[in-house]
């Protein structure tokens, strides 16, 4: 691209009046412009995120790094001028991966893999067994898997435009595959990583065992390793695989949701919540999942203060713990809120990556919140937010739905998200500062509008 | 993010019916679904792009690598089943950077820099002179710059949401700065790189000299180097800078626009064009700028053929040459088209990076084309294309506007584009395969709709 007609085209294509000139007319438009201006010119969010993921990568529940991140977030909320901060106690599960796992074709070729979160270890000396490749859990009923390693190799469906949809459809292999295979006597499970990327990066994530069903070891293969194993089995169906996992479960550990708020001037007992989750998988720096959501949520408080805005309702930032493998933080937060009879007008989550946002998903018990919020679209369109769709926010705010308010989530572009989700690659260099900032400003804008006008 | 409620939210937020179920009802919807399905499941585009930027990086006009790229594109169009291909002769300017340039604070500290495209060399032994830092070209009138190096250091304005707008506003420093400074007797020019990124990567780009004004050497500093120089000048306004540029101009060189087309079955003389540019800056692999546009445009032919579609009008893919420093390819293409009295119903360009597309800019002489095209939005919305805006496509199709048809450009997310634009960092690893594919399918969809229904 050069600086002539193309540029002209871009400029003509920009709703300039709406973007820069309309501010004088409408006080809401002026406030959004101010929030975006402050964020786009003075944001510390990317540097804060760099610090979080550099000092405290792998912030899995029970880890020292989660402890450090809790203290870090608490200090940051205090330094950003929260009127009140709180460390809300939560007991969290504590699983550790232990020494590096290994998976290899018998005979020696290594297959790049990571143990699934929560996996039990392999027996001493490892597990070596024949492998059965399956595409769907239903095939367990018609396949002899007894004593074998079940290899679930169904790729994410590439035709869905939204990768989250494909992730949802393929996810049963990881979340339920080991427990289901164990019902039929399998000795272990390997799962194709849940990603569209075709590379040698394995993706972890939680698996759930069932009561009264044997707990068998389980790992995810990189998509390249999955292809390699599939090809090896096609060449020789009797090929055996050896796997070693050294994980361990410990007693529940103490942790905390980290809370900071600006007290409401008119209705302090009514809360508008914005939050993300502080924990990450043990192998992941957790930059997009969900360090981005943490620094964006804290930015909402900073931006409103920087604008000199006095909120009518209490604006509360919550850094939840244990989203990845337990949701204990979300559950405890909702329990305490119910006990205190707190009213949440809106609980807004940012946990789908720090990419450029295009929409909000918003839901309530009558499923009309997205239509009500749509009246604000003209205010958001200059900033690239083009829709409010019906949806249920995210895992951490979902328990609040029952309390009657609205729950919502920021929806950014997500084509790149599942390339790095739950991997070593979820690092700071994958987060674009301006994309992160556009998310923070969008969150602050919606919080402001709900505070001013309700839903 | 975990696989529970968040996923639910994402799924609920997806217009499933529109995305996967509506196809049976409407033949246009069915065709778009088919084009997207084929592209998202079988696209060779990312691998083709890897080959282009690996074999032929730095495809500047006059270079051996551009020659190689021309042959490569021609062979690819033939292999994709174009009914007719053509190498359209174009004479292009030929400038070479020569040995690596250097810029340093007198005393030794190096400042990371690249010569601007088209810059004349420094005198033998280099240029050493005092430096005057300016923000705007207008300051030349009130500043003594005689014999000095003028340092234009106005950053791109971060508050505009669309970086292209900020690029346009700051660009005069690079395109006109050297010529304007020369009018006032300056000896050389340094320019802050045109980017929002704060790093040590310098960005080149064209500068234009004026007749009867001395041609003085000019280079761009990385934004970090620009800050370093600015700080040094604040500490000591007499600090001198040494610069060495070893560039050379040669005679115009022969090159070619590369053309491949599917012949129209009803109106072969009426053309729907889709294209990008094959050349890149000499220091850049040119993955986003504009290798992406090349492989996407070639994909349009492949996708229509794969769908078994027989176009009514001629669908023509054009790989323009010399977009970056001359527009000779675009000019020659339009001249020949006028000479042959060809009618272009639509000339569609893709030259703003291979990122996820969200809109089309479209324009014609009466500026109503974007409103006419907007009737197709319901077909595009399932794929994330949410608007048709008034605009003028891009540099290479702009000369066709005078011939009466519509010109258009694909608009992808652009926050990351100017981080790597015209740099060594514009490499294949920055291009996400699915984002690239979504662009190709969007282009094919618009071409199909215009072929079926006109504008």
Describe the protein in words.
The structure is a homodimer of 455-residue chains. In chain A, the strands form two sheets. Chain A has an eight-stranded mixed β-sheet, with helices on both faces. In chain A, strands 2-8-4-5-6-7-3 form a seven-stranded mixed β-sheet. Chain A starts with a helix and ends with a helix. Residues 5-23 of chain A have low confidence and may be disordered. The first copy, chain A, is 34% helix and 23% strand. Chain A has helices at residues 5-12, 16-21, 27-42, 45-55, 64-79, 163-170, 172-175, 177-183, 223-235, 287-306, 328-339, 369-373, 377-380, 417-420, 433-453, and strands spanning 84-96, 102-105, 113-115, 127-134, 149-152, 188-192, 218-221, 240-244, 248-262, 267-277, 313-320, 343-349, 357-363, 387-390, 406-412. The first copy, chain A, contains 15 helices and 15 strands. Chain A folds into two domains: 5-94 and 251-453, Zn peptidases (Aminopeptidase); 98-246, Glucose Oxidase, domain 1, CATH 3.50.30. In chain A, strand 10 (267-277), helix 10 (287-306) and strand 11 form a beta-alpha-beta unit. Chain A has 455 residues and is an alpha/beta fold. The first copy, chain A, is elongated, with a radius of gyration of 23 Å. At the A-B interface, helix 1, helix 2, helix 3, helix 6 and strand 13 of A face helix 1, helix 2, helix 3, helix 6 and strand 13 of B.
């Amino acid at each position: 691209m050069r600086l002539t007609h193309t540029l002209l085209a871009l400029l003509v294509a920009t709703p300039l009046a709406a973007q820069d000139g309309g501010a004088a007319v409408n006080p809401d438009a002026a406030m959004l412009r101010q929030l975006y201006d402050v964020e786009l010119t003075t944001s510390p969010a990317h540097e804060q995120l760099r610090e979080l993921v550099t000092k405290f990568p792998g912030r899995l529940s029970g880890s020292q790094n989660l402890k450090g991140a809790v203290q870090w977030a608490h200090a940051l909320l205090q330094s950003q001028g929260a009127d009140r901060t709180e460390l809300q106690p939560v007991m969290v599960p504590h699983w550790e991966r232990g020494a590096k796992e290994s998976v290899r074709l018998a005979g020696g070729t290594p297959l790049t893999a990571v143990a699934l979160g929560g996996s039990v270890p392999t027996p001493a000396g490892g597990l070596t067994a024949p492998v059965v490749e399956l595409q769907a859990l239903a095939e367990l009923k018609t396949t002899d898997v007894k004593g074998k390693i079940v290899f679930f190799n169904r790729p994410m469906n590439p035709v869905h435009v939204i990768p989250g949809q494909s992730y949802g459809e393929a996810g049963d292999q990881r979340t339920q595959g080991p427990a289901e295979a164990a019902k039929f006597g399998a000795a272990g499970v390997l799962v194709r990583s849940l990603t569209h990327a075709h590379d040698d990066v394995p993706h972890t994530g939680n698996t759930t065992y069932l009561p009264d069903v044997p707990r068998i070891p389980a790992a995810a293969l990189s998509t390249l390793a999955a292809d390699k194993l599939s090809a090896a089995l096609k060449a020789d169906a009797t090929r055996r695989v050896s796997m070693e996992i050294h994980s361990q479960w410990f007693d529940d550990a103490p942790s905390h949701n980290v809370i900071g708020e600006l007290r409401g001037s008119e209705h302090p007992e009514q809360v508008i919540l914005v939050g993300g989750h502080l924990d990450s998988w043990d192998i992941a720096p957790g930059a997009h999942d969900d360090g981005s959501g943490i620094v964006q949520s804290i930015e909402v408080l900073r931006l409103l203060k920087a604008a000199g805005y006095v909120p009518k309702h209490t604006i509360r930032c919550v850094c939840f713990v244990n989203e990845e493998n337990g949701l204990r933080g979300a559950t405890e937060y909702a329990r305490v809120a119910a006990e205190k009879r707190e009213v949440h007008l809106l609980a807004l989550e940012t946990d789908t990556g720090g990419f450029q946002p295009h929409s909000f998903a918003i839901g309530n018990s009558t499923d009309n919140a997205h239509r009500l919020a749509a009246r604000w679209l003209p205010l958001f369109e200059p900033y690239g937010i083009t829709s409010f769709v019906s949806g249920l926010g995210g895992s951490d705010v979902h328990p609040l739905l029952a309390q009657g308010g609205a729950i919502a989530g920021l929806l950014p572009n997500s084509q790149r998200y599942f390339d790095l989700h739950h991997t070593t690659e979820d690092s700071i260099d994958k987060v674009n500062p301006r994309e992160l900032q556009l998310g923070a400003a969008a969150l602050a804008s919606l919080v402001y509008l709900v505070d001013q006008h309700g839903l």
